[in-house]
Write a structure and sequence with these properties.
Elements: E1 5-8, H1 13-23, E2 29-35, H2 41-54, E3 58-63, H3 65-70, H4 89-92, H5 100-114, E4 119-121, H6 137-150, E5 156-158, H7 166-175, H8 198-206
Parallel strand pairs: 1-2, 1-4, 2-3, 4-5
Length: 220
């Protein structure tokens, strides 16, 4: 028997594919999109809303303004410029938003308990860079244990893509007929993907840009 689920829907390609993957597995999907003051929040939120509509998910935008005020990260509107180039610990660590996934999973767990929903889905995967400690499989499992212990309803957190890299997720998306132009990755939040920041470079790799399979328009 199918049940409802809650999904963290950022508007990016990973959570977008997760939404498409979940559509046939759950009765109703409750998509939570978090605005925590990132430079690309307006692009992500727009895409997340479109995706939720496309896949018939209930959409809720959750504002977390305290993150932009209290935390330090170049990803935030209050932070420095986004660095260009591939993921390197000495540079891309500036984009870490402290405990971001932990905070969002905590909110989603409370939402799930309130609505008597048994699972929360997150699109964390094996390709997430080690500089992001709250994206690891171990972190998701620990948060799931905390969610189960901390709720009367025993909410569980699941990361179905935890053993895949980003290219593996892209291939699942293609198998599902997923439209990647309905997603946003670039940290800079311009009209088009910049093509040079770490997330754009990872998007190019995942969508096999060098073979012509990537439908994304880039500035460079």
């Amino acid at each position: 028997m199918k049940e409802d689920t809650v999904i963290l829907l950022s508007g990016g390609m990973d959570s977008g594919v997760l939404l498409a993957w979940a559509q046939s597995r759950y009765t109703t999907i409750h998509a939570l999109c978090f605005d925590y003051g990132s430079k690309h929040a307006h692009k992500e939120t727009y895409m997340a809303r479109r995706l939720a509509q496309e896949y018939g998910a209930a959409f809720t935008e959750v504002e977390l303004p305290f993150i932009n005020t209290l935390f330090s990260s170049s990803l935030l509107q209050s932070g420095e410029e986004i660095p260009d180039g591939p993921y390197r610990t000495d540079s891309i660590s500036s984009t870490v938003v402290p405990f971001r996934n932990g905070i969002m999973l905590a909110v989603a767990t409370g939402y799930a308990e309130t609505h008597r929903i048994g699972t929360v889905l997150i699109a964390s995967h094996a390709g997430d860079h080690p500089v992001y400690p709250d994206c690891t499989k171990e972190f998701s499992e620990a948060m799931s244990q905390a969610a189960t212990f901390g709720t009367f309803t025993g909410v569980k957190i699941e990361a179905p893509f935890s053993r895949l890299d980003k290219r593996g997720i892209a291939r699942i998306g293609r198998d599902l007929g997923f439209d990647f132009t309905m997603t946003w990755s670039c940290y800079k939040g311009q009209d088009l993907h910049c093509g040079t920041c770490a997330t754009c470079l990872e998007r190019k790799y995942a969508l096999e840009h060098d073979t012509g399979l990537d439908p994304t328009r880039y500035l460079s």
